[in-house]
Amino acid sequence: MKLHFALALIGAFAAAPVAAHDFTIGSLYVDHPMIEEAPPNAPVLGGYLSIQNMGDTDDRLIAIESSAAEKVELHQSTVTDGIARMLPLADGLLIPAGEIVWLDNGMHAMFVKPAQRYRAGDEVPATLVFEKAGRVDVTFKVEERSTGGGSSHEGHGG
Amino acid sequence: MAGKFNLRKLRVVLWVLVAFITGGVALLSLGSRLAPVSAVEAIYTKPFSLVNQNGVAVTEADFLGKPSAWFYGFTHCPDVCPTTLAEMSAILEALGSDADRLQVVFVSVDPERDTPEIMKDYVDYFDPRIIGLTGGLDQIASMAKDRHIFFEKVPLEGSDYQMEHQATVQLVTADGRFFGTLATEEGFDVRLAKVRRLIND
Question: Is the pLDDT score of B5 beyond 50?
């Protein structure tokens, strides 16, 4: 009972800071860039976010740069017939006018060779590079990985 | 009157017999269809020689005698592998004391990069009860072949590469027979129920 109450409290506090974490450049609205916490010496980290194009012309996310990693690659991973595959998004990620595109569950930004260990709660600086809108500095928040177990919410994953 | 009654009785008895025979034949044919499943080849008894995350040499014998759950992945994997290991750690937690009845094993399909030290760091983060295996590429390849596990190295730009690999967890009985799989999209409760069925088998 006590434990449940404590967990509920933690949940309430943990959920709070997630709310306001967004960035705007021109008519692009970037919501909640996050990285899933990984093992201490994990050679790669998966980053996720959503981008809403509120304008009337298409744009394209062509790169993500970060001083926190050797490089950042845009990938599409798929699981087909039980086989996991990963392909680079060679042409970047199209953000069609009036639509929301999720870098989530499959599509991800892979931070290769992180400069240090990042734990849940840390912030990782990065710059999103759009074909038309240009560059915007954002922070990816490091969060605990969802396990699909218990009552924890199913958020990003994949 | 009496004769007619007996005839009806005989007819009922005959129909009951027919029903029994039909049922029996159905059961027999069902039995013969089920037989190959229970006689499924114990592919997890095939020999291998690898090292665990503590640098200790292990063979197939170390993983028999207790049900097990096997996942084949690599540490340069941003989503599928860490998510699966986090899910297995959540399963172990949900099993409570029953977790002692299950071995969870993570085999690297990228042994060129995944040293025992890297594997230790990696599995310990999710759950120290998870066993990490690596070793010679030839050993990993022959294990995968024996167990019908797909993996393939895919070159990227420069000298970089990625691995394509089996994404489902393989459940294995104490005597080394394939029991079933776990997949992320099934949801936690389904996966937990399958694992419970395995350890109570």
Answer: yes
Mutate to test the interface with B, among A34, A110, A145, A156 (most CBs of B within 10 A): A145
Q: What is the pLDDT of residues B85-95, one digit of tens each?
A: 999 999 999 99
Phi, psi of B130 (to 5 degrees): -75, 135
- In chain B, where the domains are located: 1-39, 43-199
B93 vs A contacts (CB less than 8 Å): 149
User: What's the average model confidence in pLDDT over A73-90?
Assistant: 91
Report pLDDT for B159. 76
Strands B49-52 and B57-59: antiparallel
Considering only the top CATH level, what class is B43-199? alpha beta
**A157 neighbourhood in chain B, CB within 8 Å:** 79, 83, 184
> Does pLDDT of A13 surpass 70?
no
Domain segments of chain A as ranges: 21-143
Give the type of residue at A129: V
> Is A150 in Cβ contact with B90 (below 8 Å)?
yes
Give the separation between CA B105 and CA B107, rounded to whole angstroms.
6
* Apex B195 CA angle, B192 and B199, nearest 5: 140
**Short-list B124, B131, B82, B140, CA closest to B103:** B131
pLDDT top residue among B37 and B175:
B175
Q: Which of A45, A86, A147 sits opposite B162 (nearest CB)?
A: A86
Q: What is the CA radius of gyration of chain A?
A: 16
Neighbours of A41 (CB within 10 A): 14
Residue A67 neighbours by CB under 8 Å, 6+ apart: A115, A125
The length of chain B is 201
Measured between beta carbons, the chain B residues lying within 8 angstroms of A44 are 75-78
Among chain B residues, the shortest Cα distance to A79 is held by B167
* A21-143, CATH topology level: Immunoglobulin-like (2.60.40)
Considering only CB atoms, which chain A residues are within 8 Å of B79? 36, 46, 77, 106, 108, 157-158
**Average pLDDT score over residue span A107-127:** 96
ipTM reported for the complex surpasses 0.90: no
